[in-house]
Amino acid sequence: MKYKYVAMNARNQKKEGAVEAANQAEAINILRGKGLVVQDLTELGNKSDEPTSIWDMDLGGDIHTRKIKPKKLLMVFSQLGMMMKAGINLSLSMQIMIDSEKDISMRKILREINENLYSGFTLSQTMRNFAGFPQIYISIVEAGEANGRLDEAFEQCALIVKKDMALSSKIRGALGYPIFLIILVVAVVIILTVFVLPTFKDVYSSFNADLPGLTKGMMALSDFLIGYWWLLIIVVLGIVLGLRALKKANADFNMMWAKMMLKIPLVGPIIRQSSLARFCRLMSTLTDAGIPIHKAMGLARDVVPNVYVRENVQAVLDDVQIGVTIHDAMAKHTVFDPILVSMIRVGEESGMLGDSLKKMADLFETQTDESTQILTDAMTPIMTVVIGGVVGTLVVAMILPMFGMYDVVAKSTEAAKQAGVT
Predict the structure, then answer these.
(1) Cα–Cα distance between 304 and 313 in angstroms, integer?
(2) Using 50, 70 and 90 to split pLDDT, how confident is the model at 420?
């Protein structure tokens, strides 16, 4: 296989050419043997920009505004950190990733970043051109460039992405299970009222019996779902879209909604603990990377999902900027646990704030796991009782008229006997 290279010799002169090798690693070793330091290495005849399947096709759009999935960010930071730890310079590491990247958009992003590096821009500067790289990662990379430990900066970024993905997965799992059970209840109600009850309706009407109130109510519900199901869908969509629009347009309502979410039994603790876990984890990583406290707190604040918790972090930041210690500022707000306030005080007084925040992040993540398990364990019997109650109510509604029918049949039989006697 043939590779085109750009390298520097012992006299710091730029050399270009081609080399035959089985792979990139062998090509680098061959060039090193010639006293050359590789700056760029490209496989000749590489058709990496051609999609290998429909799934790899670039659907267009500006790469500068495109979001990058967390899994892709994790892969980028992990590989860059690993290669730089192994002694491969940043430019060559980028080129290796470009050659191996299958996603068209991501390859374009990496290529533009590498071109900017050759033009004299720093990595953090060129990362700012892409919306797919959140500010928190750019700040860590910038700190790594300043202290000369860019490999550690990449590892810190990868750790944040990994922890955030794991935490988000736990939250989705915790909240997804109750939603699944609620959907199951709704599906059971629809099946029984739309497909089962109507089969009994003709039977009941043929006897001209007076139906119980419960049965009449279920029949009315059945008729409504059959005749006006579209209206129900419109109402549900209207409520959901209306709430979303109201949260975006009205800051007071959005804040009230966020506070209400924290007060929901079983669900509220998961939201609060996960928000604090994310905040502590990011603060720990940012402070360890050498980023000033006020800037680190501002970056960590922006990634807290709950608006009410975010507002409390902002209030703490405002106090810290005028000279108040972090633990004193946090003690004013009940959203922060007393143990968190105490641990931060210990960290501030001992000069090991990063370690204290890391321990609290681990604690809150553990609490999130426990709260998730409690929610799952509690929802199973609760929803079992709810489903049983719904099914039982519908069954009773179908059976009750049968007792009245026995009376009607008995009276009809008695009347027929009397008519035969006469």
Answers:
(1) 9
(2) low
φ/ψ of residue 165, rounded to 5: -65, -40
Which CA distances in Å does 84 have to 96, 110, 114, 155?
A: 12, 16, 15, 10
> What is the C-alpha to C-alpha distance for residues 375 and 377, in angstroms, rounded to an integer?
5
Residues 6+ apart with CB under 8 A from 35: 9, 10
Share of the chain above pLDDT 70, in %: 87
Joined tokens for residue 365 = 């993540």
Whether the Cβ atoms of residue 121 and residue 44 lie closer than 8 Å to each other: no
Mention every residue, 6+ apart, whose C-beta is less than 8 A from residue 53.
none
pLDDT for 136 equals 87
Q: Hey, what are 127's tokens?
A: 């990362």
pLDDT value of residue 419:
62
Q: What is the number of residues in the chain?
A: 422
Residue 414 predicted with pLDDT over 70: no
Non-local (6+) Cβ contacts of 252 within 8 A are: none
Please give the structure tokens belonging to residue 161: 């992405």
Q: Which strand ranges, in their side-by-side order, compose the sheet holding 2-8? A: 14-20, 2-8, 37-43
Quick one: pLDDT at residue 314?
Answer: 92
- Do residues 138 and 289 lie in contact, with contact meaning Cβ atoms separated by under 8 Å? no
Q: How many CB atoms lie within 10 A of CB 356?
A: 24
At which residue do the structure tokens 């990449």 appear?
A: 154
DSSP for 358-382 reads HHHHHHHHHHHHHHHHHHHHHHHHH
